[in-house]
From TrEMBL, chain A:
This is ABC transporter ATP-binding protein. Keywords: ATP-binding, Nucleotide-binding, Transport. Belongs to the ABC transporter superfamily. SMART domains: AAA. GO terms for molecular function: ATP binding. PANTHER family: MALTODEXTRIN IMPORT ATP-BINDING PROTEIN MSMX, OSMOPROTECTIVE COMPOUNDS UPTAKE ATP-BINDING PROTEIN GGTA. Residues 4-234 form the ABC transporter domain. Gene3D superfamilies: 2.40.50.100, Nucleic acid-binding proteins (2.40.50.140), P-loop containing nucleotide triphosphate hydrolases (3.40.50.300).
UniProtKB/TrEMBL annotation, chain B:
The keyword Nucleotide-binding applies. PROSITE patterns: ABC_TRANSPORTER_1, ABC_TRANSPORTER_2. Belongs to the ABC transporter superfamily. This is ABC transporter ATP-binding protein. It comes from Mesorhizobium montanum. SMART domains: AAA. Residues 4-234 form the ABC transporter domain.
Amino acid sequence: MSAIHLQNLVKTFGDFIALKTMDLEIADGEFMALLGPSGCGKSTTMNMIAGMEEPTSGKILFGERDMAGVPMGRRGVGFVFQNYAIFTHMTVRQNLAYGPRMRGAAKAEIERRVGAIAEMLQLSPLLDRKADRLSVNILQRVAIGRSAIMEPAIFLLDEPLSNVDAAFRAVMRTELKQLQRQFRQTMVYVTHDQLEAMTMADRIAVMDHGVLQQVGTPLEVYNNPANVFVARFIGAPGMNLLKGWPIEGDRGLVIDLGSSGVTPPLPDDLAASVRRARGEVFYGFRPEQVALAERGLSMPVSFVERIGARTIVHLGEGESAVKAVFENDVGLSVGHTAVVAPPASSVRIFDADTGLAMRAG
Amino acid sequence: MADIVFRNVTKRYGTTLAVDDASFTVNDNEFFCFFGPPLSGKSTILRLVLGLEVPDQGEILIGGKPVNSVSPAERNVAMVFQNLALFPHMSARDNVRFPLVERKVAEADIKRRVADVAAKLHIGHILHKPPAQLSGGERQRVAIARALVREPAAYLMDDPISALDARLREETRVELKRIQRELGKTLIYVTHDQEEAMSVADRMAILENGRIRQIGAPAEIYDRPASAYVARMLGSPMMNILPSVRGAGGIEAAEGTIRIVDAKAPAEAIEIGLRPEDIKVRPWAENEMAEAGKGRPARVLEVEPLGGYTVVTIEAGQVRLRAMLRGQPDIRPDAMVAISCDPARVHYFRQSGGALAR
């Protein structure tokens, strides 16, 4: 079994708490992304799983086996870093064959495995090329192949795509996902890029300041973020959050957003939770779900970015700034006033004090 | 006037053509972006403007004056430091003063010019602070002020925000664009990020191996790319470009999974280009038959949910194509789907890769 269990895992460096009691279950064969900004503790967590660092306290189990004191080389994990480790004096074939050869695999077996992995990573035409003649993109592919060929039960990747160019990154995302689907390894993938996490992972563990914020499928963390950090971090652009006070309106509970106006009524089940909590709240909605409307929040257009198929319209300023994403040109420009209304079902409410989401019911 | 003109400029390093016969005009007060992959020549163009390199052939004019033999110090263009870095041990004011102090400008002049540039960039109230106490946006303004205090005709930036993470880049590019609009000064900007280029540029030039492949407003280039190369450079996921053949039922691509009926399709077209957001995908009904004007079924390989959008990778015969669908449609790997595209949204390319008009 190659499930990974992190139990009460803590890591401190002197006074600095890199990781604060992390509990996480990664299922056998699961693709788990550890996602967060720099300094959130994701690489520290990964390094402890790999055996490069010892936990200050807490446990790491692979299946039933406690990993305490088990050195890196004995953990049976494959590891790919941001900066690929490739023997530049060797060919692609020699690089791929290196691991199995060191393990004493038979020649025919090595050839078969090199062939298979090269095919999967589209390296077949390059097998006899010297590594020092290859682009960064291809080298990272070789690095992934070198690790994958060992068929580790657990595959750890730390920002493997951050040095490759954008177009190639999109291709590699699909290939990594395919690779994992084929070999069914347990994959732990560290990234600060929410797009990578969203597109590849079965589940995402969102981290900030050494604290696990939420674990869920990509659409769970996008649709129902547990707190304002996750709401802002997931999505490009992140969720809009406007501060306001709940007040009773004619047609139900509404949020008074001050200068931006008053929101449409909240759905009844959500309103019930907000009434119980009574405090100031964040009114949240996704930029992609904003629609222009007759009635709604009236906001001045402050900036317009047309980026290919999408147009990002920036509305309002400072505390009351929000973004709306439209397809193509919407005919809004700076100086216009836009009336926007997020559909009631897409509105999310967060406690302004704790930052925590208020759930319906 | 601070327009910058290149006339047939070529720059070689040994046998490598870094810039190959480049001609363009950057207009006064324009935010002009050079965009291309590594080693495509964009940074060399910046160095040529600055005077750090001299053209092997051709002529460079700044504000109407030929500058080929003018030294960098006398060119009146200013580079904003990489990553908008400031000296951490100096106050914002001393950072801004630095280029003038270094040039031994008279103290009264320094005071006047620092006050001027600070007013323009709205940083008068933070000049006493050290960089560590400034927000990211304030630091950028100070870095730009330091470049502009010399009162250059134009300023230049070389991939200034590439080191920032994705979220911060989104915010910063908007701020840079706002500052440039407020200042109304010519800005030449280099980036390798297509989204950033499209967001900030009034006009942009797309480079390949030292050659300028297309110049225009970002939306213009995105909507009407001059070639398959340019088409692939803008947009994420990139445009699907597929070999196509003319069949009885219209133009076919990806082994008949795509059929386009378009009376205006140019005869010389050997490839079609489909933007991911223009591709429509629907489940293939169980008893459905392929028929004229409709493609054969294709298989879904991968589904990437982005929340607001869903990218679907489809295996259509030997090719893979990507479609970007709005929202969170219920499509799963291995599902059979029908693919279609509005003929008016199809791009056509000739043998050489050049785009064909409909």
